[in-house]
Amino acid sequence: MKFGFVPALGTPLDENGNLIVESYKKQVNDMIDRGASGLLSMGSMGIQAFLKMEVCPQVAKAAVEAAAGRVPVFVGAMACSIAQAKQRMAAMEDLDITAFVFTTPYYHSCNPAQIINYFKNVAAATKHGILMYDLPGVTNSKITYNIVKTLIKEVPNLMGIKSADIKLFRTLKLDPEVPEDFIMVYSGLDTFDVAYKWGIDKCLDGMLPVTPANTQGLFTAMAEGDYAKAAKHLDNIVGLRDLMAGCDLWPSFSKGMNLLGYEGNFFPDYVLPFNEANLEKLREKMISIGEPVVG
Questions:
Q1: For residue 71, what is the domain's CATH number?
Q2: Do the Cβ atoms of 234 and 194 come closer than 8 Å?
Q3: Which residues touch 73 (CB under 8 Å, ≥6 apart)?
Q4: Taking the model in full, what pTM does it have?
Q5: Residue 11: closest CA among 2, 1, 23
């Protein structure tokens, strides 16, 4: 997997919780046109945990069809048990995806032995690769260096890990026993410019689809070695995220996607609608950082 960014795609839904296929495919094509090196379908910002069961395979299928083999497609199949994980994967097993993405089970915290047992059993149930998603703030379970090393040795289709733990990635980078093709996708958006200088050159985040111009600018500048310009683009992305978080992140992200021309609701159905009093503030911020606002 080449250097670059992997957007955690937003999932556009109608009022009944069904996928708006054309809006989703437009997002996929736009991200690839901006230079994405891969796609994450149904990650955290893609609200995988909140989708209707029958919608999940439809989302993955739409992503694969729109990508058309141009970039790897990673598909979230997070679950709270091995049985659930197998059921989710079985519904998407025949799709041409690169890997299924899994956090640890997230209803109760897990000890290291349970995490290892979970990933070994999940990985054995699919012909596809597996990408671990280290998300301790949600799952209350940390994927540690020792867990990763154990799973690399025991799980042949383990392809890599997504994490915001820069120390973990640095340690793995320096370990000669970690295969060169082991994918490490960094999700610590605020410190990506620092991580990049350490050779951690792949970034995955849910803000990337709603900041397409700055995302493209960030990675173009990184590739050219213009770190000052890259830092400016990163500041723009983080600044918009902080504004959205202050206005309630999920509905603000959804409204931001609408402003870019993507139809649909990009949030769980229990979330209250966007406060329209914040619309001009959001619109002005997106325009000021150079995003292609159309709505």
A1: 3.20.20.70
A2: no
A3: 38, 39, 41, 60, 63, 64, 67, 96, 97, 98
A4: 0.95
A5: 23
What is the C-alpha to C-alpha distance for residues 97 and 10, in angstroms, rounded to an integer? 18
Q: Does a structural domain hold residue 277? A: no
CA gap 44, 30 in Å, rounded? 20
- Report CA 248 to chain centroid distance, whole Å: 19
Confidence of residue 207 (pLDDT cuts 50, 70, 90): very high
| Cα 99 to Cα 51: distance, rounded to the nearest angstrom | 19
Q: How many domains does the chain divide into?
A: 1
The amino acid occupying position 112 is P
Handedness of CA 216, 219, 223, 228 (dihedral sign): positive
Question: 217-266 pLDDT, tens per residue?
Answer: 999 999 999 999 999 999 999 999 999 999 999 999 999 999 999 999 99
Q: What is the Cα–Cα distance from 166 to 178, expressed in whole angstroms? A: 16
Place of tokens 């793995």: 172
Q: Which residue has the tokens 């970690």?
A: 178
Question: Is residue 235 assigned to a domain?
Answer: no
Asked if 268 contacts 252 with a C-beta cutoff of 8 angstroms, the reply is no
Is 38:98 a contact under the CB 8 Å cutoff? yes
Would the pLDDT of 178 be above 80? Answer: yes
Token duo for residue 78: 């997070």
> Is residue 236 a part of any domain in this protein?
no
pLDDT of 238 reads 97
Alpha-carbon distance of 199 to 169, in angstroms, equals 10
Domain span holding position 184 = 4-212
Q: Is residue 164 part of a domain?
A: yes
Q: d(Cα 217, Cα 28) in Å, to the nearest integer?
A: 18
Please give the Cα distance from 152 to 184 (Å, whole number). Answer: 13
Cβ 143 vs Cβ 132: under 8 Å: yes
Kindly tell me the burial class for residue 17, based on how many C-beta atoms sit within 10 Å of its own C-beta (0-12, 13-18, 19 or more). middle
